[in-house]
Amino acid sequence: MFWADKIASKFKGEQVVNDSKTPSGRVHVGSLRGVVVHDTIYRALKRAGTPVRFTYGIDDFDALDTVPKYLDRGKFAHYLGAPLCNVPSPGEGATDYAKFYSQEFFEVFDYLGVKPEIYYLRDYYRQGKFNEHIDLFLKNAQIVREAYREVSGGERADNWYPFQPICEKCGKIATTEVTDYNGKEVFYTCKPEATDYTSGCGHSGWMSPFDGNGKLPWKVEWVAKWQIVGVTVEFAGKDHSQKGGSRDVANAICRKAYQKQPPFHAPYEFILVNGTKMSSSKGVGSSAKDIADLLPPELLRFLMLRTPPRTAINFAPNYETTTRLFRDYDTAIAKYRQLVAGDPDAKLGKDLMALFYSQIGDEIATYEPFDFSTLISLLQVPHLDVKAEIAKRTEVELIEADWQTIDARIAAARHWLDNYADTEEKLVLYVDEMPEQVSNIDATGVRYLEALAENLGAIEAWEGETLQTAIFTTTKELEIPPKSAFPAIYYAFLGKERGPKAGNLLSYLEKDFTIARLREAAAASSSVV
Questions:
Q1: Which of 84, 165, 203, 518 has an alpha carbon 20 to 30 Å from 283's alpha carbon atom?
Q2: 223 touches 250 (CB < 8 A)
Q3: Strands 271-273 and 313-315
Q4: pLDDT tens digit sequence for 282-303
């Protein structure tokens, strides 16, 4: 069984799958793992016939604790320590900071076919949904202190209360500390040295803790949210799932305060970003939106689902990793088509359900695959009709569904070339002029180009593998090591010593042009030699 189906088989009766996020800036791609994991559990429960809801909370009452480097610090430093929902929006189209960044994240949700019931904690606090839970925890503050001490070793003073008011004078929530509760109001102080990133104003006084005047600390808030939303399933990232960590503390508070078992939980790893590839000079970073702009939705879901949640995913959008992902997905689709066709030798195994849950809809969408790495190369050939070339290179007639997939991949390939490709990964084909670098071709290279032009003239099937065979055969005929011969080809067409597989490179070009260029390069080089 697939991991999500195993989990779904454990439950009876109505379930609520929940996930949440603090929108403190552009949401990192790592956070998408939790979104897709929870969405897949939700889909697995539906598939098992279990009544289920999927909810997603925006923790926008949390404080702004840093100004991201892509924002003007001077504009936002004043709001450090204030609730995110009370911070101005960094751009148009949103009422505030939290809505601005959560809306961008929700665009990715739509793209991936994730459709939870969305709620904002500001609304729950202001509508009074937290009131009874705030009162419970203020009256039983010792329970929270015990949970912190017993589970994580954290000590809280005897007059510490689990609540943070919004300071009536400066508007900050991160700097306030409650030291008394009379059943209707809390006494608090906005402490100047409460945090290392902002200072409190020093104001103190009594105020009501209800109806949005403040919030519970997030571990306590987590527990109250489970009760309000009715959560029965909620995973957490590995960072929160360590022994004695945040989830263990929340679980203990849940048992002590409500005499209830906490929601079903298992840890998951995040998507890691490898090296600096995710941050180019063009401003492309490691946000969820950036990856969604690069990968078609089924590919992005497949990236996260083919690996069990407890295993980390290390993805860097370089040439090798990106093209391998497309190739692996194409392979899974091809195996699935074999299964559907009744091929007795077809085996897909665990990839079948990963493929199923990768789809936006409820069926696996098949297509006639076209190699993504070849597409990257074709897009870089000047004056080439890419779609005509794709049709010519495909053995079967492409239908509308095939072209929809290909169009999405053309967009992905263009995006990769524009934002992620290193200089050495890009083809700069000299079609209209001879590269100056042909002067680097030595006498051995000249001899090789002349012989290769002759051999290619006899080839009828102008295909990558056929051309690659001819390229190697020519080195054997002349008894020249490939490493001494191949640079001559790249100098003639790319103006540099190395490049992609030479047979594929030449297959992108017209036969007559290729042979003529080889001879012209040999002639130009021999005059220099």
A1: 84
A2: yes
A3: parallel
A4: 334 578 888 899 999 999 999 9
pLDDT recorded at residue 362: 87
Tokens (6 digits) for 153: 């070793």
Contact 18/55 with Cβ under 8 angstroms? Answer: yes
Query: What residue ranges in 35-90 does DSSP mark as E strands?
Result: 52-58
Cα–Cα distances in angstroms (integers) from residue 103 to residues 61, 89, 96, 418, in the given order:
16, 11, 11, 25
Paired tokens of 189: 């102080």
CA 7 to chain centre: 24
Give Cβ neighbours of residue 357 (< 8 Å, ≥ 6 apart): 2, 4, 40, 43, 44, 301, 305
Which residue from 207, 236, 232, 206 is spatially nearest to 219, judged by alpha carbons? 236
Query: How far from 127 is each of 99, 120, 211, 221, 224, CA to CA, in Å?
Result: 18, 11, 6, 15, 15
pLDDT for 273 beyond 80? no
State yes or no: pLDDT of 423 exceeds 90.
no
Question: How far is it, in rounded angstroms, from Cα 96 to Cα 79?
Answer: 12
DSSP string, 455-485: HHHT--S--HHHHHHHHHHHHHHHT--HHHH
- Expressed in angstroms, the distance from the first to the final Cα of the chain is 67
If pLDDT is split at 50, 70 and 90, which confidence band does 528 have? low
d(C-alpha 59, C-alpha 124), whole Å:
10
* Amino acid occupying residue 494: L
The pLDDT tens digits for 476-502 are 999 999 999 999 999 999 998 988 889
- pLDDT for 217-264, tens place per residue? 999 999 999 999 999 999 998 888 888 889 999 999 999 999 999 999
Tell me the mean pLDDT in the region 315-320. Answer: 87
Are the CB atoms for 213 and 222 separated by under 8 Å? no
What are the pLDDT digits (tens) for 445-473? 999 999 999 999 999 989 889 999 999 99
Q: What is the greatest pairwise CA distance in the chain?
A: 97
Quick one: residue 231, left, alpha or beta (phi over 0 = left, psi -120 to 50 = alpha)?
beta
The string over 342-379, giving b where at least 16 C-beta atoms fall within 10 Å of a residue's C-beta and e elsewhere, is: eeeeeebeebbbbbbbbbeeeebeebbbbbbbbbbbbe
Strand pairing partners for 55? Answer: 18, 117
Q: What percent of the chain has pLDDT over 70?
A: 96
DSSP state of 136: H
Alpha-carbon distances of 404 from 297, 398, 407, rounded to whole Å: 13, 10, 5
- Residues 71 and 150: their CA atoms lie apart, in Å, by 41
Q: What is the pTM of this model?
A: 0.87
Give the DSSP H/E element, type plus range, for residue 16.
strand 15-21
The three-class DSSP label of residue 387 is helix
